Amino acid sequence: MKVLVIGSGGREHALVWKLRQSPRVTQLYCAPGNGGIAYEAECISADIKSLESLISAATRVQPDLTVVGPELPLALGVVDEFTRRGWRIFGPTRAAAQLEASKSFAKEFMQRHRIPTAHYAVCATNEEVRDALAHFSTPVVVKADGLAAGKGVVMAPTKEAAGAAAAEMLSGKMLGEAGARVVLEECLQGEELSFLVLSDGERVAPLVAAQDHKRAGDGDTGPNTGGMGAYSTPQIMAPEMVEWLLSHVARPVVAGMKAEGMEYRGLLYCGLMMTATGPHVLEFNCRFGDPETQPILMRLESDLLPALEASIDGRVSEGDFTWSSDSAVCVVLASGGYPGAFEAGKKIVGLEHASDIPGTKVFHAGTSKRDSAYYTAGGRVLAVTARAPSLEQAVAHAYEAIQNIGFEGMQYRKDIAARALVKS
Ligand code: AMP
Ligand code: GLY
Question: CA-CA distance, 355 to 233, in Å (whole number)?
Answer without folding.
Answer: 21
